[in-house]
């Protein structure tokens, strides 16, 4: 390694609460065994390549603020230096996984053939780094939104040549993900939406997007990729309306097009908020629809109203999210990806360590709180009691369709039903949540 980027060379230690060191975990001990699995196995943390290694600190008003050695040019040598630094970061953080887009890891070759060759060479390089470090790939994905060819979308572009270019790019990325043993493949339709309905054919775009997703699913079966295919919903930004608006919208789309057995969802905290939902709502809905896959654990600044991609810092918010994940049985192939970036004044490489350590500690505390909420049992008990009537005779008859409207009307009249409202006990439930402590 050419230059020393970080101030430490040994992996971040677990110092426990009150530990003196700054670059140490206080709550996340990757090796701690909880319910028969290590915390690393429960949480399945992933560091994202794009925000941590590629984003230079730009915002809509200002240029780069970060100065990293590999920013000097877009050569293969710089791409390899960036990859080496990436794996140094993953290893220092003891992160079991990482995630990447093609465009994060390879220089743009100026055309399809050269970009593909660059990706292949970088896939070998990443494979070697994974081998020596033991870091695994949570998911790969294709960047179908940065290049100007995608200004009007990829799959939903009015020009079929753009669709074809995007499809060819996804093929290469899925192949690369499989070669690297990726456990998931994500599709985030960054520009699959519109700015104005005046130039948009919604029905045509829906058909195109469905065809695209079928192509990816067919290719996955053809090459025998065993990982999960995931769609990441987001309602807006960069466009004003996105086809993959939220969990409910994507679920409807998948069912309409016979894709519900092929795809699950990667749910991002900030995107849920932009769609007007709580993160835990999106997770719970995906769980109930059998579509839950993985999470991007990055929050928004709720005052600024856009996708600020910040590291999580609320134990309560993380607990509510992990509670829904645990209620559904925990992660399968998914994990906790930090699709999160530093603030643009945090220009020191060590800030990347502080950010992830804080995020991992917060998640670990949230996870432990969620576990205690489940183990405590009162919340689940009160929920069960609230619906208990449905396990009785009337509930069973109604659900099984044994009564039509005439029969129901007759029954209500004959029995003189006069149902009385009951308390939803929200404050009691919130107090129970508030009184269960992390330790
Ligand atoms: C953008 C998305 C993106 C995906 C991967 O808002 O969150 O980063 O996670 O393409
Ligand atoms: Ni996002
Ligand atoms: Ni994301």
From TrEMBL:
- Provide the residue positions that the database annotates as binding Mg(2+) 1: 232, 268, 296, 339
Q: Does the keyword Isomerase apply?
A: yes
Q: What is this protein called?
A: Xylose isomerase
Gene symbol here is xylA
- What cellular-component terms does GO give this entry? cytoplasm
The protein's required cofactor(s) are namely: Mg(2+)
Could you confirm whether the keyword Metal-binding appears in this record? yes
Q: Where is the signal peptide?
A: none
Q: List GO molecular-function terms, semicolon-separated.
A: magnesium ion binding; xylose isomerase activity
Question: Biological process GO annotation list?
Answer: D-xylose metabolic process
Binding note for cofactor: Binds 2 magnesium ions per subunit.
Q: Which NCBIfam families match?
A: PRK05474.1 (NF003998), xylose_isom_A (TIGR02630)
Per UniProt, which keywords does this protein have? Carbohydrate metabolism, Cytoplasm, Isomerase, Magnesium, Metal-binding, Xylose metabolism
Q: EC number(s) of the enzyme? A: 5.3.1.5
Catalytic activity, per the record? Answer: alpha-D-xylose = alpha-D-xylulofuranose
Assembly state and interactors? Homotetramer.
Q: Which locations, inside or outside the cell, does it occupy? A: Cytoplasm
Against SUPFAM superfamilies, the record matches this protein to: Xylose isomerase-like (SSF51658)
Sites binding Mg(2+) 2 sit at: 268, 271, 307, 309
Q: What is its main location?
A: cytoplasm
Active-site feature positions: 101, 104
Xylose isomerase-like TIM barrel domain: which residues?
115-281
């Amino acid at each position: 390694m050419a230059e020393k980027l970080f101030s430490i060379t040994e992996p971040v230690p677990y110092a426990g609460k009150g530990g003196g060191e700054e670059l140490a975990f206080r709550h996340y001990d990757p090796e701690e065994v909880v319910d028969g699995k290590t915390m690393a196995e429960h949480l399945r943390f992933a560091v994202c390549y794009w925000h941590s290694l590629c984003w230079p600190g730009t915002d809509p008003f200002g240029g780069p603020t970060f100065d990293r050695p590999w920013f000097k040019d877009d050569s293969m040598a710089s791409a390899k230096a960036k990859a080496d630094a990436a794996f140094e970061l993953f290893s220092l953080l003891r992160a079991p996984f990482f995630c990447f887009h093609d465009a994060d890891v390879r220089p743009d070759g100026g055309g399809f053939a050269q970009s593909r060759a660059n990706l292949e060479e970088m896939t070998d390089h990443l494979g070697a780094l994974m081998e020596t470090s033991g870091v695994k790939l949570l998911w790969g994905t294709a960047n179908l939104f940065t290049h100007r060819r995608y200004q009007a979308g990829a799959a939903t572009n009015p020009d079929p040549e753009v669709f074809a270019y995007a499809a060819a790019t996804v093929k290469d990325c899925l192949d690369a993900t499989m070669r690297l043993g990726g456990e998931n493949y994500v599709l985030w339709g960054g520009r699959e939406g519109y700015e104005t309905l005046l130039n948009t054919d919604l029905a045509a775009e829906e058909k195109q997007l469905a065809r695209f997703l079928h192509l990816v699913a067919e290719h996955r079966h053809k090459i025998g990729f065993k990982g999960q295919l995931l769609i990441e919903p987001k309602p807006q930004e960069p466009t004003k309306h996105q086809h993959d608006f939220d969990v409910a919208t994507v679920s409807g789309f998948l069912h309409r097009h016979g894709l519900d057995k092929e795809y699950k969802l990667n749910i991002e905290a900030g995107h849920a908020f932009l769609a007007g939902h709580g993160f835990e709502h999106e997770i719970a809905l995906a769980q109930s629809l059998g579509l839950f896959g993985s999470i991007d654990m990055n929050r928004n600044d709720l005052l600024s109203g856009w996708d600020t991609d910040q590291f999580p810092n609320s134990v309560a918010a993380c607990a509510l999210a992990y509670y829904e994940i645990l209620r559904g049985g925990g992660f399968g192939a998914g994990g906790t990806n930090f699709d999160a970036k530093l603030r643009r004044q945090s220009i020191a490489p060590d800030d990347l360590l502080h950010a992830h350590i804080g995020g991992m500690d917060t998640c670990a505390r949230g996870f432990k709180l969620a576990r205690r909420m489940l183990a405590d049992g009162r919340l689940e008990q009160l929920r069960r009691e609230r619906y208990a009537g449905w396990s009785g005779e009337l509930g069973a008859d109604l659900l099984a369709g044994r009564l039509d409207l005439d029969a129901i009307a007759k029954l209500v009249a004959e029995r003189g039903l006069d149902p009385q409202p009951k308390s939803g006990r929200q404050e009691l439930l919130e107090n129970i949540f508030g009184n269960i402590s992390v330790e």
